[in-house]
Amino acid sequence: MGLIGAVAATAALASCGQVDESGVGVRVLVTTDSGARTVLDRSGIEAKDGEPALAVLRRATTVETDARGALTSLDGRRATGGRTWTTWLNGAPLRSGALKTTGEDVNLQQLPVVNGPRTTKVHDGDTLWVDLQPAGATPPRGVVGTFPEPFEHGQEGMRWPVRVECAEPRGRACRMVRDALVRYDIPAVTNLIRSSYNPESARVAVGTWKQIREDPSAGLAERGAEESGIPVVPQKDGRGFALLDAAGRETRTIGAGSGLVFASRYRNEPPSWAVTGTDDAGVLRAAGAFDATTLKTAIALAVSGPDLIRLPDRGDATR
Question: Left, alpha or beta for 254 (phi > 0: left; psi -120 to 50: alpha)?
Answer without folding.
Answer: beta
